[in-house]
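Continuing the batch. This is chain 6 of the set; chains 1 through 5 are on the previous pages. Same settings as before, nothing changed between runs. Recording input and output for traceability.
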Amino acid sequence: MKKTFFLSLGLLAAIALPAQENIQWRGDRTGIYKETGLQKSWAEEGPALLWNYDGLGEGHSSVAIASGKIYVTGLTEGKGYLYVLDLEGKLLNKKEYGSEWDKSYNGTRGTVTVDAGKVYLISGMGDVVCFDEKNLDVVWQKNLLTEFEADNITWGICESPLVVGEKLIVSPGGQKHGIVALNKNTGAVIWSSPGDGDLSAYCSPIYVSDQQVPQIVTMMAKHIVGVDVATGKKLWSYENINKTNVHPNVPVYSDNMLLCTSGYGKGSVMLRLIDGGRNVEKVWESSELDSRLGAMVKIGDYAYGSGDNNRFWFCVDWKTGEQKYKDNQFGIGNVIANVTADDAMLYCYSDRGDLALAKASPEKFDITGKFKITLGTDQHWAHPVIHKGALYVRHGNTLMAYKI
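Output for chain 6:
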């Protein structure tokens, strides 16, 4: 993880902080990347392309990065493959792990998670696989759907497993086993929580550690739920329904508050954890702020994101939901990815293939550079990643690294 160095007032030169060394889904699930010294604007043609790797197969998963290696998955002829590249784009290893999703919007879904010498993934078919990081040997594997009596969902299980201590948190969904904690080293069940008996909903869970009861929070098909990380006991749930039971956006947590956003006509709700995390109360809601799968980020006192039915870029007050701006000067398709570096710049990726750099300011949507992703195949759905001054963009068959 990033170390913080205290600089004397005399050292005012641009000195970049060390990059975050373990990149999982949306960095650390917040969408905030922890680097400084990045470009504040781009040339007309966009940032320089450092390299591209072609041959990943079909997929929408983003990259994970650990120990100087890039991990990404892809589908080829019905089979899923885990690829390992170095930071210069050279293929180091490749491992088949079984059948992958090829029924609609083909390709791999969830981003892998790397932890303590092991690599974890969940396939669109519900297989959870643990690999040895050194050689990609399979340490253990099980199918969440058959093991936990769950049904797959319309577009295939889409989840990045969460590691908390010795637990690997996954969400098979169903009447008996909504959320499950597995031993990350063996795959053995530590606890199982039915929650409200909902199906999985394409969401990756988060860990909220600063409550009296530390907990796992995720969005299932019809509820947002919090369960005790130690026992799996349901602490609270909040009904959250849209017409498709699709809730892919990871909740954004800060200062006892959870911003939960869905598309397909739903919108956003801000919940406050109360009673030491044992319950929640609604703070505000917005039908306009309805990102389908682009997620949200919090910078300072504001949240930034995009719309689905409401095809704008938004900024709202974190505490009140007051809209500061909505802007459609930068083309929006149907779904948007939105990430940021912590030097207050937004990286906005449209499913039309347009990628923009903008200032994270509540005053206006201030674009300082944009370009089009022309390499790759199929949908522009994978969320960009920032690491050591490079912007990684996966577009189907191709992974690109841009100098930022």
